[in-house]
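#data-curation
PF: Archiving a pair of folding outputs for the training set. Convention for this channel: one message per protein, sequence first, structure tokens after, nothing in between. First:
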Amino acid sequence: MLACPMPADESCRLQALEEMAVLDTPAEHYLDTLVQLTQDLSRVQTVLISLIDQDRQWFKARVGLDASETRRDISFCGHAILSTDPLVVPDARQDERFADNPLVLGPPFIRFYAGQPLHAANGQPIGTLCMLDPQPRTLRDSEMAHFQQLATLAEGYLQLRALLQRNQALRQAVDREQRRALLDSLTQLWNRGALALLHPREAAMAQERQQRLGVIYADLDHFKSINDRFGHDAGDAVLCESARRLRAALRPDDLLVRQGGEEFVALLRVQDAAELQRIAERMRVAIGGKPFALDSGPLPVTLSLGCALARPQETLDAGLKRADGALYRAKHGGRDRVEFTAID
């Protein structure tokens, strides 16, 4: 196996990646959609948006692979960023660079690979849009054209994201190592530690904009039975797909957290209770409106939700407790429903 060579201007490349403040941030609906579309069009097992850090490749978006990162020295994408052209490997077993690579000899048993470099605004390569499959194959000209067009969309989104500095306040408050500790590795949502950290910011922004801070507490119905019947791998797949669907149901600036187990919490700035309940209903339909595709077949899953508007100067725990009370009523009222706790 040939280890990934380092670009001549590696320090500049790493600086460009760091300045984009995209490493170790939660998954985003638009990029999730893009990798899913790439998978559907290309009919490959795995599609990734891979960012090449100093010692690892980290996946900003992924479908068909559970791992959130791998070592850089065994990555295919570390080779791909050395050129502006796509890197296509029809059969990794026949390529001296990769034939004895651990990712070829073991899971995910890569045979076919295609990676299109993605660049920062200054032209530095930061990662790739890549496709993997356990079967050797080639790409037709039309397939390659579509793949490169999708990579252009991914690159444009990442550059625009950095330009708009959506996470400027977060970057000021939380450094990159802290962000890593605040991410749920399975779903790539923020975890409950991030909820406590970011709640004051969300409350302050709601007050500044003369909005209300809404709390939605959501719980997947009968989740234990999914693990019991189909195994924990199926349960993990349901949690990951639930996270994707809930992100899609929420707005870009809404904060979605995996509170623990099968519980999710959303903090969002709204005008009134009616807007909060409409969004909660949208989340309910996102989960229950379409069965989940498991290896064993389609599985209906439902979601119960409780929501509350935060009182002025209310603590996070107090707001969560009132939303959790509404969730309790939803569970005991038949599940697959939204309940709201009015302010006394």
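PF: Second:
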Amino acid sequence: MKSFKKVVLGLVAAMAVVSAQADVSTLQANLKKNYPATKVTSVDVTPIKGIYEVVLGKNLTYTDETGEYFLFGDIIRMKDQSNLSSQKRDELKKIDFNSLPFKDAITYKRGDGSRKLAVFSDPQCPFCKRLETELMKLDNVTIYVFTNPLVGLHPEARNLSKKIWCSKDKQKAWRDYLISSIEPTSDGLCVNPVDSNIQLSRELGFDGTPMTILEDGTVVAGAVSVGELDYKLDKVAIAKANKK
């Protein structure tokens, strides 16, 4: 009798999966028909019956199988207050760290350099200056600084970034200015990546500075403390080691 019940339950579960897959296929067809110019990255089920998760590029939304109406927001599981949307949204924001053009970055290495992060930073941004002070306290780290002047807020930051890059010792010139407000002495007329870094920042969807990218692709916005950075870097390093 128990074996029969297990078989029945198994069949019910299998039918539910087949039904959900059919609904997903229907939704995919409706989205393709109704929005042919829209890039649909993925469609999946949610814990809410009849509601499906749709990823449009890097945007997360929800809809039913008709795809006529969309919900933008979070799904919260009330019994434990878990945000079921935040993890997915964080995954969508991740960036391929190894695809970054590191030759266009000002690079620092401390200790064994095993932990890695990249920072998009504006030399005249007060929050970037605060973050730079925290970055100096890190050990066993490689830091790639991509100059990203926000010319709309800081009109002089673009030329200043070029002067820093063209300095004989760009690493020293960068920190001299951000930490001690010492102006770079170069003319800024050398070949430099400042404009391409600005374009890259736009392509990555950054609308402010500083923006820090960890090796696992996680993006951390703002001037975070050295303690928080240490914790996040160690977490990434442990996850990386566990994959080996």
